[in-house]
Every structure is written in structure tokens, then in C-alpha cells.
User: What shape does this take?
Amino acid sequence: MLLDRAARHLYAHLGSRYRFAWPLLQVPAALFVACGAIAMIASYYDPEPRQVALMLGAATSFTAIGVSLAMRAQSRSFAELMAWRESRDPSPEATREAWVTATNLTVRSFRANSLRVNAIATVPTIVLALIALELPWYEGFVLALAAFPAAA
Amino acid sequence: MLNYSTAEFLMRPLIEDIAAKLPEEFVFTATGLPLGTRLVISLGVFIGLTGLVVAALVTDHGGSGVLLGAIGASIGVGLALTGELAMMLTHAITRPIRDLRRALEQVGTGDYEVRVPVVSSDELGALSNAFNRMAAGLAEREQIRDAFGTYVDREVANLLLSGRFPSEGIAVEVSVMFCDVPGFTAFSERSEPERSWRR
Assistant: This one.
């Protein structure tokens, strides 16, 4: 699989800079989903290009902020893992701790950050979309429901 | 979910690296996101998004009313399909894994007669089949060890069967004790083999 091969290649060649592979891959993926969601929602309203541009700008900016904050929350764990990788002869205890950190980092981040990241990405975007599309406030709930699958 | 999956892919080479250096006495605890939960979330999201996109393509800028209708339809179809589909998929994947895990625990306690049913011809079926062959191999090895142990010391039998016995042999100092049962030769000459063995 392409992603698997790419991950192994980056891991072998980047050394301790491998931690940057996460934002390199996850931020564009999140932005792609955000843009898709805006395109989908916009298609229901027939907006002007400037309105679409405003919504896209808001969605991409707030999504990037949300994902970046989630990455920042993980930075200490990444630093620990990279320190383990750089150590020449890690102790069994350090290896055990590194394994627990590495195997739990993704699920811990998912549980701790998914709600916050989605709130940061969607709430301001929906408010700006309501203003851009000149919709009444209660239609924000419809937009929030429409954005939910993309956010998930 | 997309970010969760990409993060798992990125983490994989690092975890493999760490796992190769884990001590043997390492105690494993399962803390990851269960497969069933992942399937429910993924399927729900895909069905919901597909419904919304299809509705967007077939309706002509209908506004919030049409969007709300599309969301309702997506949620309805999603709830009806996701639960059942996710349950079937989860069952098909996790049940053979659960059977294998239980069987491996039994092998760990020394029960080499345990087998798992090979109920499919896919990767999980191949895994179950490989497990059964491994258990049969271990059982055969145990029988050989027992048979060997009747005639040679158990330590020697274990060394021979471990595969670590060098072809050039090992020089060791040993004490050998020969025993004889008084009158046994004469008894065995006039007895049937089965009777001699029982004696």
C-alpha cells in the first residue's frame, strides 16, 4: 500500500524529523475534507464565488488551527518517542514505556482532541457561512448537521 | 477517522522498531479503539456523506429545507444500514480472532490438542489453518519429547529437540549408571514381550 510504503520510507530517512510527517500528511487531508464539505454544503445554496471563497477560507483556516493544536498537544509524546529512537541502547523499561506511548498515542489523541478540533473547525466556519449566505441563525443547526459527517 | 487511520499508518514503522526490542516478559494490555467502533463510525460517516453528496447533485440549489431533508434521509439510511452492516462485518472479523486468541491461551498452558474451526477461505481462514498446523506440530514434538524421555534423560531430549544441538556435538563429563534386575534375562527369555514390558 502506498501510504504504508511512504511511511516506512520517511521513517527510514527522516530520523528524529519523522515527527513532521504527521502534520505533513494530516493537515492536507483535513483541509481536503473541509474543502469537500464546504463544496457540498455550498451546492445546496447557489452562492456567489466570493461567498464560497469566504467559506473556504474560514473552513481551511480554522481546520488548520484545530489540527495544529491537536498536533501541539502530542508534541511531548513525540519528543519522548524520538528520544527513544535516538538512544543507542535503550533500557527494557524505556522500551516498554515507548511501546505504551506509541501504541496509545493515536487513540489517546483521538479521544482527547477530536471533539475540540471539530469544534474549532466547524463552529466559526458555520457562523461565517451563516453571515456569508445571509441565512437566519437557526439554519446554523442544519449546517452543523451537514458538517457532522465530514467532521467525523 | 481519516486522521486516525493515517496516524496509525505513520506510527506503524516506529512501533515495529520498538516492538523488536521489547523484553520477553512484557505484559500486553489492549487499549486501542475496537474494530467494531471503527467500523460503525466509518460506515456511518461514509453513508451520511454519500447521501448528502447525492442529494446535492440531484437537487437544484434547494437551500436549507432540501439540505435538512437530505440529512434526515442520510441519517435514516445510515442508522438502518450501519448498525446491521457493522455488526455483520465486526462479527465476521472479530470472531475468528477471538477464537484464535482463546486457542493461543490454551497452547500457552500446554494444551496442544486445541484446534480452531477454519470457517472461511480468506486471510482469517489461512490464519486459522496455520494455527492448527502449528498446534499439530507442537503436539507431535511433545510426543517425540515424551518418547525420547523414556530412554534418555529429559534434559538431553529437550536439547536434541530444541534445534540448538550443534552438528559437531558437545563434549560433556557425565556419570553413567548401569542397572540390572536379578533374574530378569532368564524371565524375559521364557515370557511373551508384553508380559516382560509389564514387569
